[in-house]
């Protein structure tokens, strides 16, 4: 970290240096004609950059070291490959996670699981606990939904991915293969810490208005407690555009892969909220270098009106998979086995 | 709620109407030359507007009823006045909540409590559990910090306001007068539901990139479970501006007061992250019609460098209070007694 | 357009209706239990939706007709194919526009033109008049730069694309094949009107914080004056992310193609500002259904340090073209001939 | 400007240094344990920070000098006071600019001018050339509107403020006292340059999604050409909030006054687009330290329905002025004389 000291406050710099040294860091001073620069040497990840930059004598602060360590590719150059119920995620493996928005019935979840498995899906997704903006909206089937997911897992052999919202329910997630943290909980730090003590792979969705650095800091929360099996998921950010519910940020994919060794996948269904955008954005995500896709698939979107919005039918999913297979060699990837 | 049906999909409208009726609602049809409009009659708050608007046959959806009921001024025209440890909040009462960012020691918290009480503060704030972007940053004194706050309450008589991050610690908050939900937890729905079953006043901060409607829906989560003592707090939203950490949205104040009967206060300290902006933005908040202020005050910002950033000294707080007292009559308010 | 009238203001609706009729529109009234709806019949594109929605008696306004007509796919279902110097743009044609950020010398522009032509580029881009945030930064070679572009056109046969910033220089653009309007001028309405009277194809970049509807309204400005040869260009929008200069909004591509018959291409160079993101985002743009790419290519990015940032070398461009050719059949497109 | 060089690219730094020296700057090197820092000495305002920061060998760039000079308070510590038709703007003077959105008729403009003058307005505003999102919307009375403004000036003695959209009409603005540049033209650099050669005071509105630094750079464009009479105007920025058209950024006021010596006023009418928000936001703007207000006032908002949205009536304006007069002494200001 580099601190640039205001010219007219140079005399007070000694006090600041003492405070920095009191935090176990060393300093390297450099005085130019108009500027005094204080370089901090040591582990600055515990320093609050906002606080320092608002000190009166500080003109500006520039972090050099990234504030994340375990997630940082600089310290772990090789791609992390995570095993989730036997499926390899990361490296040159491309994975397909598919399934309905909400688990509704045993018949529904098994039927969809069988369909997406046939098209090549590696894992089954399905919501049991649903985060809803309104307290009056359907909140998911809860524990019963989890039971139905497990039945579908047994019936098809597909590992399951589902969201946790309350750490007190963690014991219910024992047979889940990947635990998902939703966008609105990306900075629910107590939930992150608790999952950091689990040994389950965690699918960490990016918050609606969060930067990539904040996202990686949330991954770091989980990793710092011991669980390094974090899979990142880009699912659209909030912008001024209204035709789509959110704006899928595909340029985040190559950036994230530069900054971290963790796998990063894309959710094209939640990003736009429109089923007809799922095919083009799935292809684009594969072309941008994503490590996989998580897609909402429904057996009969018209019948279950309330789920039809962003879900595609199995035949559309099948067509996407076939096209993705043409793109993967261009980006040095192949479907995970 | 009004649904506008696509011209070329009119034939399929029957199916949609059956689905709507299946949810206990009635419909009112209106066919214009180029447009078919379906008006929904009944309680539409349980309908998911995103889902409906993405149905193929729906051109557009317009909500008429607000999706919040208990928080809605239409159904409760009079201002709600909340009693927090004997302090009246809302109506034409203006309150002052002041105290340090973090509780650091018994001496510190009592000294500040005495100083701000002398200037007219009604309640003492102080962080014990701190939400931090980095897992390596100081996470607050925790339970011990809560104990020190209680000592300051005993010493000065000021009620206390502090943040909860994990519902499992609720029992520790028994002597707290107002429980705060931080911006990053505004859509931590499980936390909202649990506090909805408490009888403590809740200070609900607005999320960094949330709309006013989402904020009111989070208030509704708490109220729908039985706890109607919700105080809203505007604390700055994320924008493209970098000189300030966030952008204080003061136009939210008159808007919120139109839409809801709940009190709304302003946090000028977190909004900008700069102590020198606290005085002008405090006056502006009072002039905009806020029901109060929550301000970070520190006894020695220079000594405790890490807190100096957005905290002001007691004498600055005192000067703000004096100026606010000139503004309050202009907006029909007076300091709470 | 549908107006929803406030329940307690129903009595004043007559005045509003008279005002509407005075603007040549007819109305269709629909009274529900709690709501009065006024449907406007006729051409509402001249009505200011912001003004109407803020009238006291109006609860809400919902536009049904899009405010753009000539750009609207509803009225022109077939793709528009534009001829720019013999190159077909739109339909199932995919075009490649390439060249340096700024024209620097005759040697430079011709060398690059030859290189990109060899790889398959259809048109040459190059900046002569440069929009710069700072008045002290290099503003481009101006008229002299235009002359050098024309020499490159003569030498290679490639049509040229370059930006106009001041309508008074239009006469200089006579031999230019596509005139570009930059992002910061997207709502420079006087410039749009003037180019609407030209017969040159116009490349209209999306503004940094503009919605798709505003972008189409700017296209409509040009078309309403008679020039229907508008090519849209997505070049990244402003978000909270800092690793990239802007965030490329690829979901805009399928949305724009739904709403309008005009071609839409992607500029991956300006979007991120990072040359290493150009390859993945070019492939992603093709996979998302874009009608082409406009890419900054430089002959020696290291030598000309100041241009190296977002420009790629010719060999990288060549590799992108080869990979794009694999993707195009998946989206029903082929390189323009 | 400080450049932080990537550890593994140190060997290439010589080339960069040569390039920097070739631009007339000197360098100051500082090598820490893990970091090489290059400090640039001299006038770095011509360097493009985006370009440099994207060079391969550069880890990060930190500007120390602000890129604006003439607008910079560091070099001009005293407030600039601008004389506009005899009215002093800046320093401890507070000004009131009021008038209708659009000039409609001689009777209208004179009637409003007389009313606002009586309440204390210093200058009359009124739109003749109107920037409209839609080409089909009313574009203002144009030159005829300017003539009517001049008649109102003659009748009341109030100086006039009106917007220019096309530099070719500059000759029509000879009797205008302050020429306004609208938000959408804030980065119409050619317009800025041309007004930089005029001697008229310029009211420069902040762009909808522009940072304060970009705003000051646009002021610098005007000043760099010789015209230092620039008045800044905060008019709301685009955010995710929909209840208001834009979000008034009042924290920009104290920040701008720190960074520049130029006056800065507030437009509460355009910011929210809602007339009922004009009173609270006017008071808040005064309390935040603004140098004045520009308010839309209409003689009969109900009659002229299309203007009623964000305009207030003269009696409301009068009440605002009276309340503002109570606030001004708190911030060390008084109405301009």
Task: Give a description of the structure.
4 copies of one chain form a homotetramer. By secondary structure, chain A is α/β, with parallel strands linked by helices. Chain A has 2 domains: 2-62, 2-Layer Sandwich (Alpha-Beta Plaits); 82-335, Alpha-Beta Barrel (TIM Barrel). Chain A is 29% helix and 19% strand. Chain A has helices at 13-21, 49-53, 106-119, 143-156, 189-195, 212-224, 252-259, 268-272, 278-287, 314-327, and strands spanning 2-5, 26-31, 36-41, 58-62, 82-84, 87-89, 93-99, 123-125, 159-163, 178-181, 202-205, 230-234, 264-266, 292-296, 334-335. In chain A, the strands form 3 sheets. In chain A, strands 7, 8, 9, 10, 11, 12, 13, 14 and 15 form a 9-stranded parallel beta sheet that branches. In chain A, strands 2-3-1-4 form a 4-stranded antiparallel beta sheet. The first copy, chain A, starts with a strand and ends with a strand. Chains in contact: A-B, A-C, A-D, B-C, B-D, C-D. Chains A and B meet through helix 1, helix 2, helix 5 and helix 6 of A and helix 1, helix 2, helix 5 and helix 6 of B.
| Shape, per Cα inertia axes of chain A | elongated
How many structural domains are formed by the residues of chain A? 2
| Overall pLDDT metric of chain A | 91
- Helix and strand content put the structural class of chain A at alpha/beta
Biggest interface and residues each = A-B, 54 and 54 residues
Count of beta strands of chain A: 15
How far is it from the N-terminal to the C-terminal residue of chain A, by CA?
43 Å
